[in-house]
Amino acid sequence: MAQPRALLSVWEKSGIEALGKALTEMGWELLSTGGTALALRGAGLEVTEVSEATGHPEVFDGRVKTLHPAVHGGILARRDREDDMATLAELGYAPINLVCVNLYPFEETAARNPPVSDAELIEMIDIGGPTMVRSAAKNHSDVIILTHPDQYPGVLDSLSESNGDPCGVDNTTRQSLALAAYQSTAAYDTAVSNELESRFIPSDIPSRIHVSSGSGSELRYGENPHQPAAFYAAAGPLFGLAAAVQHGGKPLSYNNYLDLDGALRLART
Question: Which residues belong to any copy of the MGS-like domain (predicted)?
Answer without folding.
Answer: 1-147
